[in-house]
Amino acid sequence: MALRINEIFHSIQGESTAAGLPFIFVRLTGCNLRCRYCDTRYAYDEGGWMESGAVLSRVSDFKCRRVTITGGEPLMQGETPGLVSQLIDRGYHVSLETNGSFDISVLDSRCTKVVDVKCPSSGMQQHNLLSNTDQLDINDQLKFVIADRMDFEFACRTIEATRTSLPAGNILFSPAHSLLAAGELAQWMLADGTNARLQIQLHKYLWPDIERGV
Fold first, then answer.
1. Which of 95, 105, 40 is nearest to 64 (CA)?
2. Are the beta carbons of 165 and 141 closer than 8 angstroms?
3. How far apart are CA 128 and CA 201, in angstroms?
4. FRET partner for 166 with CA separation of 20 to 30 A, picked from 16, 25, 137, 195?
5. pLDDT tens digits, 142-194
6. Are residues 5 and 24 in contact, defined by beta-carbon separation less than 8 angstroms?
């Protein structure tokens, strides 16, 4: 079983409810979407093939038991669910970040799913597979990257329409870095009574001049 890998690195988790914790990141190559604010365009095409055994070996080099599978879009590769299960079977806590356009039911139920819902400013909202919201359990997370007021209102409507059973702390509103100030989004959430978690990209503040490996 081989996967096309962009990078594997050890860093601080910058997003999700696990922000601030050390994680091993396995970034897969390839993405089916082209969001206007994408900050990992280098993962569209760059990467080399690795057998799953080699990925597991590389992951074991780090003194950490938490792994995030990310991209790109990791579910583009059919071998990804197998890698997730292999990692979990070896005692790792595994989360997977997906753009929300693929069916997450292919993933091991023990994996924490962090599922994007694309807002209008991304230019990709037509690709949202909102049926994924019916498959989320209490440990999973739903993320909205918000660049403007239209995105904010879209996110609020989507939460109401999907009637997700996720706890408020697992619904993430993330300001698009450099496009919307976190403080402005916070004010909108307070004024609206939004029952969600404000999330900033912590790694962008820890290492503002480093694009990869963080």
1. 95
2. no
3. 22
4. 25
5. 999 999 999 999 999 999 998 788 999 999 999 998 899 999 999 999 999 99
6. no
Coarse DSSP helix, strand, coil percentages of the chain, rounded to the nearest 5 percent? 35, 25, 40
For residue 187, give the 3-state DSSP assignment.
helix
For residue 175 the two structure tokens come to 């300001």
The amino acid occupying position 107 is L
Interstrand relation of 171-175 and 197-198 (parallel, antiparallel or unpaired): parallel
Helices H / strands E in the chain, number of each: 5, 9
Residue 117 confidence (pLDDT): 98
Strand 22-28, strand 93-98: pairing? unpaired
Distance of CA 47 to the CA centre of its chain: 19
3-state secondary structure of 5: strand
Contact (Cβ atoms closer than 8 angstroms) between residue 102 and residue 95: no
29 — phi, psi (to 5°)?
A: -85, 145
